[in-house]
Amino acid sequence: MIVKIENLKKYFPVRRGFLHRTVGWIQAVDGVSLEIKKGSTLGLVGESGCGKTTLGRAILRLIEPDSGEIYYEQENVTRLKGQAIRRLRQNMQIVFQDPDSSLNPRFTVSRIVGEGMHIFKLAPKDEIKQRVKELIDMVGLPLDSLNRYPHQFSGGQRQRIGIARALSMKPSFIVLDEPVSSLDVSVQAQIINLLYELQEKICLSYLFITHDLNVTRQVANDVAVMYMGKVVEVSQTEELFNKPAHPYTRLLLEAMPISDPAKRKERPDVKGEVGSAFNLPTGCRFRNRCPLAINICSLREPQLKEISPGHLVACHHY
Amino acid sequence: MQPILEVKNLKTEFFTEVGVARAVEGVSFNVTKGETLALVGESGCGKTVTALSIMRLVPSPPGKIVAGEIFFKGEDLLGLPASKMRTIRGRHIGMIFQEPMSSLNPLYTIGYQIKEALLAHKRAKGRQARERAIQLLSRVEMPDPKQRFKDYPHSLSGGLRQRAMIAQAIACNPELVIADEPTTALDVTIQAEILELFFHLKKTTETSFLLITHDLGVVAEVADRVCVMYAGRIVEEADVFTLFSRPRHPYTLGLLNSIPARRQPRQKFAAIPGVVPDPKNKPSGCAFHPRCNMADSGCQIGVPALIEVEEGHKVRCFKHKKLADTNDS
What we know:
The complex is a heterodimer of chains A (318) and B (329).
Chain A: E1 3-16, E2 21-36, E3 41-45, H1 52-59, E4 67-72, E5 75-76, H2 82-91, E6 92-95, H3 99-102, H4 109-119, H5 125-138, H6 155-167, E7 173-177, H7 185-202, E8 205-210, H8 213-219, E9 222-227, E10 230-236, H9 237-242, H10 247-255, H11 295-299, E11 305-308, E12 311-313
Parallel strand pairs in A: 3-8, 3-9, 6-7, 7-8
Antiparallel strand pairs in A: 1-2, 1-4, 4-5, 9-10, 10-12, 11-12
Chain B: E1 5-16, E2 19-31, E3 36-40, H1 47-55, E4 63-72, E5 75-76, H2 82-88, E6 93-96, H3 100-103, H4 110-120, H5 126-139, H6 145-149, H7 158-169, E7 176-180, H8 188-205, E8 208-213, H9 216-222, E9 225-230, E10 233-239, H10 240-245, H11 250-258, H12 297-301, E11 307-310, E12 313-315, H13 320-328
Parallel strand pairs in B: 3-8, 3-9, 6-7, 7-8
Antiparallel strand pairs in B: 1-2, 1-4, 4-5, 9-10, 10-12, 11-12
Helix pairs in contact in B: 4-5, 4-7, 5-7
C-alpha cells in the first residue's frame, strides 16, 4: 500500500449576496476511502463535477481536506507542515489535464523540467542539466526541445513535458488528472503507452483520473467510480467491466462509444446529467437518474458493501 | 442521386511569414441527401479548414482558397457574392462548433441567439420567433425549454450548451449541417446523448451531416460514409462498414487501433508513432511515410493516387494490396 485515504471530506462554501454569507455547502468529496497499491494504477472515474479532481488534489494536499486521513507509506501526512510537507511533495507529483494552462509559456522546456530540482537543490547545476536531458529523452521528446517554449509543441508533446516535470522529482506516486482527455485518440495511445512503460521501468504508482472508461480499462488495475462526491463502486478492473454492480457504473458503460458500426444499437435512455452538488437529493445521490430507484433509496443513503472479494458497491439493491 | 454538396479538388493555403502552409491539397468528396459523411483525421490534418472553406469562413488573409469548386445544390459557392453567401450560411448550411463556450455569445441569452438566426433569415417574426425558438430547444431535448430560453451560456453545462448550439444550427431547417468535433469536449454520457440526438434529427428531417472528428469510435456510431484525411489529402474513402472491416490504408488501420474500446486491457498497443507533419513542411512523396511501418524508398518519392479498390472504396497508398493480404489472412 503506497497511499491510503480514509473518510476524506472537502466541502466548498457557497456564498451569496452582498455580505457573502455562506448559504450552503458543495460536498465535492464526501467521505471517500481508497487504497492505492504499490506499482499499480487506480482508475478514478466519473462525470465532470463529481469531485474526482478535488479528490486528486486533496490527496496531494494542494487543496486542504476538511477532515479524514491521508497515509503515504504508512505515515499519516494529513497534518504535515512546512519542511515535512515539502519533502512529501517530492514523492507525490501531479500531471494536469490541460498542458496549455499548466506550463508557463515564458519558460523554456529545460527550465520547466529543471525548476523543481533547482528549488529542492536535488543536485548541482550541471548535473541538473544532464538530468533534464535524460528526462526529455525518457518521455520521448527530441533533445532540441530543451530551449524551445511550450507553444512550439503539439498537445501530446506538451503533455510529455508535464510528465517529464512530474518525473524530475523522482516521485513514487503520481496523480494523473485527465492526462489524455484533451488529446487526439492516436496521441492518447502514445501517452498511455509512455505512462505504462514508465510504470514498469521505475515502479510508479498512479491515481489515474478520467471520465473515459475505455481509457481506464486500458491502464488501471483497480477502478473506483465516483458520483457526486461519493465512491459508489470499487473493484478490480476486469471484474468491473464484466460484472458492473452499481446502476451508475452500468450507465457509464452503456454510454461508451462502440468500436464497430456493425454493433450499432438503440441507445439506452440516459436520464439527465449530474445534478447540482449544491442541492443534493435525500438518500442515494443517484436516485433521480437511477432506473432501479425504489422507496428506500430516497430515505437512506447506501453504504459501501463488499459483494465479492475486493468488489465494493454502495447500492440498496445489494 | 444528385449530391447536395460536391467538393472538387479543393485547395486552401495559408500564406504566413515563414512559408506557405498547404492545409488542404486537392480534396474531393460528395454528400448526398440524408447522408452523414464523416471526415476523420488527427488535429492538423486539414479537416477543420475543409469545413471552413465550404462555409467560406477561412480567415483571409492569411488563408486563401487557391483552387477547386464547391457545389451546394448545383451552385458554386466559391463564385457567389458575399451577400448571397450570407443567406446560405445558417439558412441552408448550419454549423456546430467544437467549443460551445467560445462560439456562443456570452452577453446574450441562448434564446436570443436562436431567435437571431430566425430573424436574420426572415423565417419568423416577433412573438412567433420566440415560440419557434422554444420549440427548437425542446426539439434538442433541452430540459425546461421556457426557462432555459432566458439563460445565458455560462449558466448551462457543457452538454446543454452544445444542445443550444445544435438548436441554433438547425433553426432554419438547413439541408446540410457541418458539425466540427461536436462531442469532443463532453463527458461520455453526454456524448452518447448528443450522438443520439443527431441520429434522431437525421431520421426525422432528412438533413445531411458533415461530421468532423478524430475519434473513429464516434464515427462508428453515426456515420454512413467516411473520408480519412491526412496532411491535407483524403487517403481513404469508404462506407463505414467497409472501412471498419477492410481498412486498406495503414493510417486508417492505425486510427482503428487507437480506438479506446479496441485496445487490450493493461497492454501496450500499436499507436501511430510520431506526429502530423507541419503543413508548411510536408514530407516528400506519401506524406504518411515517416510514420508508416510499411513504407519503403518508393513511398518517399511518388505521391500515390487515390484509386478505387472496390466499389465505393478508394485508397491512396502504394501498399494497399500488401495491407489487404496481411490483414485478411
